[in-house]
Amino acid sequence: MPIKHSALKQIRKDRKRQARNQAIRSTLKTITKRLIVALNAQKLDEAKGLLREVVQAYDHAAAKGILHRNTASRYTSRLAQRLNRSAK
Predict the structure, then answer these.
(1) Computed from CA positions of residues 83, 63, 53, 35, in that sequence, does the dihedral angle turn out positive or negative?
(2) Is the pLDDT of residue 2 over 80?
(3) Using N-to-C axis directions, what is the helix angle for 5-40 and 69-87, rounded to 10°?
(4) Which of 6, 45, 61, 72 is 20 to 30 A from 16, comparing alpha carbons?
(5) 65: pLDDT confidence band, cut at 50, 70 and 90?
(6) Which one-letter DSSP state was computed for residue 3?
(7) What is the distance, to the nearest Å, from the Cα of residue 32 to the centroid of all Cα atoms in its chain?
């Protein structure tokens, strides 16, 4: 266990950041799952609205450094492709 006060503060900051990042990742998984369920149920109007919400959430996570920007782009691109395939 570190003894320096600065090291103890860093541990507290790391734990707080970890909890925040985990909460955001969990939210991303939840809204992605809601979109996939809507696509599987062929609810295209609902899926279009959810896709907008999902893209905003992934972009926000990428901007905050929780996900790499290419990872966020990959996820949103694949979900958009899925929506477009379902619409045909």
Answers:
(1) positive
(2) no
(3) 10
(4) 72
(5) very high
(6) -
(7) 8
How is residue 33 written in tokens? 């799952």
Residue at 45: amino acid letter = D
Nearest-angstrom CA–CA distance, 34 and 21: 20
Phi, psi of 66 (to 5 degrees): -80, -35
Joined together, the tokens standing for residue 75 give 């996820």
- Count of helix runs (H) and strand runs (E) in the chain: 3, 0
DSSP annotation of 41: T
Contact call for residues 31 and 53 (beta carbons, < 8 A): yes
Contact 38, 68 (CB under 8 A): no
Q: Scanning the structure block, which residue is given the tokens 């939840």?
A: 30
Residues found in the chain: 88
Q: How confident is the model at residue 23 (pLDDT cuts 50, 70, 90)?
A: very high
